[in-house]
């Protein structure tokens, strides 16, 4: 990842689909002086994504692409990212699998947060799978995005204890709290 020069921050886009608590958290992190990034663009797959309110609140440009045609959506997103000179893409609960072609174009510049201790539990329903398997530990991972789902190089992970009274909802809540610490830490790590 390119080193920081002077006071210029790396122009970053955050892709969301839902609540956007990670988006809010990354925006807040980007505002602090030591943060290597600025958030210049929010991309959502749905206009119903609750997280879009944070783009409004922090006056960040937002675009919505419905992905009815993947090819068209990705083409438009590529153009947008180039136009806005985006150098880093943070996927934060973005529920679409980007194509190989798109990922190749932005090779090494897309990162994702996943709610499990990868390589365990790639894909969906990570918390119920961990509980059903009687795991003692769950957690979250920030990793580089490659064409293979949830398989790119791991940047940072954070473990979370699973206790007997945990259910998928309570575990998701605990893990999300750690995600909010992990994403900024991972961004700091890749630019250091
Ligand atoms: C997070 O748990 C993230 O790891 C997963 O989707 C959730 C998104 O939460 N991929 P939010 O929209 O950032 O609140």
Question: How would you portray this structure in words?
Answer:
- Strands 3-2-1-4-5-6-7 form a seven-stranded mixed sheet.
- It is globular, with a radius of gyration of 16 Å.
- The protein has helices at residues 21-31, 52-57, 70-83, 100-105, 126-132, 168-190, and strands at 10-16, 37-44, 61-64, 88-91, 110-114, 137-144, 154-161.
- The mean pLDDT is 96.
- Helix 1 (21-31) packs parallel to helix 6.
- With 192 residues, it is of the alpha/beta class.
- Strand 2, helix 2 and strand 3 form a beta-alpha-beta unit.
- Helices cover 35% and strands 23% of the residues.
- The structure holds 5-O-phosphono-beta-D-ribofuranosylamine.
Fold topology:
Blueprint: E1 10-16, H1 21-31, E2 37-44, H2 52-57, E3 61-64, H3 70-83, E4 88-91, H4 100-105, E5 110-114, H5 126-132, E6 137-144, E7 154-161, H6 168-190
Parallel strand pairs: 1-2, 1-4, 2-3, 4-5
Antiparallel strand pairs: 5-6, 6-7
Helix pairs in contact: 1-6
The structure holds 5-O-phosphono-beta-D-ribofuranosylamine.
Q: What labels describe this entry?
A:
single chain; 192 residues; alpha/beta; seven-stranded mixed sheet; 7 strands; 35% helix; 23% strand; globular; binds 5-O-phosphono-beta-D-ribofuranosylamine
Radius of gyration over all CA atoms, rounded? 16 Å
- The total count of helices amounts to 6
Going by helix content, strand content and strand pairing, the class is: alpha/beta
> How would you state the average pLDDT, rounded?
96
What's the total count of β strands?
A: 7
Poorly predicted ranges: none
Strand order of the largest sheet: 3-2-1-4-5-6-7
One letter per element, helices H and strands E, the order comes to EHEHEHEHEHEEH
Cofactors, ions and other ligands in the entry: 5-O-phosphono-beta-D-ribofuranosylamine
Main beta sheet: strand number and arrangement?
7 strands, mixed
The percent of residues in helical segments reads 25-40%
Strand content: 15-25%
General shape: globular
């Amino acid at each position: 990842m390119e080193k920081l020069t002077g006071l210029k921050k790396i122009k970053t886009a955050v892709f969301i689909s839902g609540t956007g608590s990670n988006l809010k958290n990354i925006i807040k992190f980007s505002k602090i002086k030591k943060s290597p990034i600025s958030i210049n663009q929010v991309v959502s797959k749905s206009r119903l994504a609750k997280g879009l309110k944070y783009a409004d609140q922090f006056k960040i440009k937002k675009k919505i692409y419905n992905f009815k045609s993947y090819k068209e959506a990705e083409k438009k997103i590529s153009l947008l990212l180039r136009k806005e000179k985006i150098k880093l893409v943070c996927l934060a609960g973005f529920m679409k699998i980007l194509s190989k072609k798109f990922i190749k174009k932005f090779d090494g510049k897309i990162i994702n947060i996943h709610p499990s201790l990868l390589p365990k539990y790639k894909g969906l329903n990570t918390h119920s799978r961990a509980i059903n398997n009687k795991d003692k530990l769950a957690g979250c991972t920030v990793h580089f995005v490659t064409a293979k789902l949830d398989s790119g190089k791991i940047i940072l992970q954070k473990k979370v204890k699973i206790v007997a009274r945990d259910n998928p909802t309570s575990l998701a809540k605990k893990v999300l709290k750690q995600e909010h610490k992990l994403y900024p830490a991972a961004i700091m790590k890749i630019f250091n």
